[in-house]
Amino acid sequence: MSIRDLKGPSRWWALAGCLIWLAFTLFPLYWAVITSFKSPLGVVGGPTYIPFVDFEPSLTAWSELLSGARGQFYATFIASSIIGISASLLATFIGAMAAYALVRFTFEVRLLSAVIFVFVAFGGFLIGRHALGLGQAISLIYAFVAALVLAIGSSRIRLPGPVLGNDDIVFWFVSQRMFPPIVTAFALYLMYTEMGKMGFKLVDTYTGLTFAYVAFSLPIVIWLMRDFFAALPVEVEEAAMVDNVPTWRIFFGIVLPMSKPGLIATFMITLAFVWNEFLFALFLTNSKWQTLPILVAGQNSQRGDEWWAISAAALVAIIPMVVMAGILSRLMRSGLLLGAIK
Amino acid sequence: MTRQDPIKHFFIWPAVLIVLVISIFPLIYSLTTSFMSLRLVPPIPARFVGFGNYTELLQNPRFWRVTWTTTIIAVTSVMLQYIIGFAVALALNRRVPGEGLFRVSFLLPMLVAPVAVALIARQLLNPTMGPLNEVMTFFGFPNLPFLTQTYWAIGAITAVEVWQWTPFVILMLLAGLQTLPDDVYEAAALENASPWQQFIGITFPMMMPISAAVVFIRLIESYKIIDTVFVMTGGGPGISTETLTLFAYQEGFKKFNLGYTSALSFLFLIVITVIGLIYLAVLKPYLEKHR
């Protein structure tokens, strides 16, 4: 009995509050499940609550959905899974490398180099676009390369001005998340269209959407994995360094296996984010690589009040993540993730 | 301690390059476009208009209306999320009976696709066939216009936001509560401090930094709301529940008014930055006091 445990009546008040919140949390999900088992007539007849007691369950919605009569669920489900899993794997891997570098190595970027980068990128684009009359995409690419080369080159010289360290780089990564995604999504759509005119089809392709998701997940991956790597004991790595093990082998052979729990947790969080993401998919896909949220949202306007079908469609999007949450909490309880979530 | 090693470039460049490309390209593109008059449908050649798009937007009552709607939804839902989330986190931290079950099921909503949540909410709120209508009819209020009248619709969207994101607040605050030291509470118990005094005097001040961070994250995220509104009301009735992101989507993707949309998204960025700065400025004295 610790000092924190509730005693007396307040314990029961807290329990009552939690139960109310539990009902509020679970009722919508329960409702979706039972509605998906109602027959069309059972839905129109007014609300009913308990299967077998006040309505007779039917498999109409599910058989229609699984037979493909309700739009391309199989294709969309597969597209969603492929994009979700590959984007999260890539983001976790690339982000983990960057996070590790930011924890263990020293980075110094002159503020002036960053300023040079932004100016050359903007100026180069404007010059290419308006003075030289190049296309949008071409001038963007030239400006980007020129800016990058100049910025890296300038960081070799000892420029005056403040120096940005590891923490500033992390802040830069994380601050990308503050951006309203509409800014990025809309511009990205236009950019992809421009690229499409040059022969690289990116709108409604696997590459285009996955790339956008990787970039958008990286900030959160770096943020999570940085805390995790920082908590790892540095002694093991030092011992390996004494034995002259190359750094890349320390990372892949020692650090990554040690941080498996953190990697799994980060992967799952990223996957949930990508799986449920709506705005980017709305802008960047139109048919072939459409993801589940778009298809599910479309059910609304296409089907009106056919709730049995809508519920089944919504559940297809919900169930994989609920299963994943179950696995995640299992892992947490079994101690595999101990220390991963602080 | 950090160290020097040339291999560090190999580790960090993939991430830097990807984020740079995806952030700087759109930034350059939309910032330059925002100073031009550019339409795809009907196609008009680009023309430099300076701050034309911005002034036009600032004079557009729809922009202010949309900003106001978004602010109302964001502020009320985050407030409710924080109050409910804090209460639930306190209860879970004090090992309410059945805590293990609550912990798992309370986190569920966060993982559900917002689009799916909105679809389910539409069914629950249906004014003639939904279960909520039956409850309200029982209390003598039949056929309330949950999604078709401005105030009800905003309330419904707020409720859905609260349902979906309170779990995040619970998760973060619970993690914070578990790091609080026991001995302070033991001392307070010896002094016969009432539970309320303990909360006001100890728990709340010590939770201030994490609370500030949680509310900040939620506030910024709430301003980006689109999917729930998109499905639940489509911005209607009229434009009365339209949010900033939805407005930008309508202008950009339905009317293909590129310059205007780019200007709008930058104004949006400015709005978010201003709100963030005000929030930090208001909170700073409190945070420093409790450091």
Automatic annotation (TrEMBL), chain A:
The keyword rRNA processing does not apply. Gene3D superfamilies: MetI-like (1.10.3720.10). The chain crosses the membrane at residues 12-33, 73-103, 109-128, 140-157, 169-191, 203-225, 307-328. GO terms for biological process: transmembrane transport. It is a multi-pass membrane protein. Keywords: Cell membrane, Membrane, Sugar transport, Transmembrane, Transmembrane helix, Transport. One of its GO terms (cellular component) is plasma membrane. Residues 125-328 form the ABC transmembrane type-1 domain. It is found in: Cell membrane. InterPro entries: BP-dep_ABC_trans_perm, MetI-like, MetI-like_sf. Its main location: membrane. Part of the ABC transporter complex MalEFGK involved in maltose/maltodextrin import. Probably responsible for the translocation of the substrate across the membrane. Belongs to the binding-protein-dependent transport system permease family. MalFG subfamily. This is Maltose/maltodextrin transport system permease protein MalG. It comes from Pararhizobium antarcticum.
UniProtKB/TrEMBL annotation, chain B:
Keywords: Cell membrane, Membrane, Transmembrane, Transmembrane helix, Transport. Signal peptide: none annotated. Its main location: membrane. The chain crosses the membrane at residues 12-32, 66-92, 104-125, 151-177, 198-220, 263-283. InterPro entries: MetI-like, MetI-like_sf. Gene3D superfamilies: MetI-like. It is a multi-pass membrane protein. Pfam families: BPD_transp_1. It is found in: Cell membrane. Residues 67-279 form the ABC transmembrane type-1 domain. One of its GO terms (cellular component) is plasma membrane. GO terms for biological process: transmembrane transport. PANTHER family: BLR7065 PROTEIN (PTHR43005), SPERMIDINE_PUTRESCINE TRANSPORT SYSTEM PERMEASE PROTEIN (PTHR43005:SF1). Belongs to the binding-protein-dependent transport system permease family. This is ABC transporter permease.
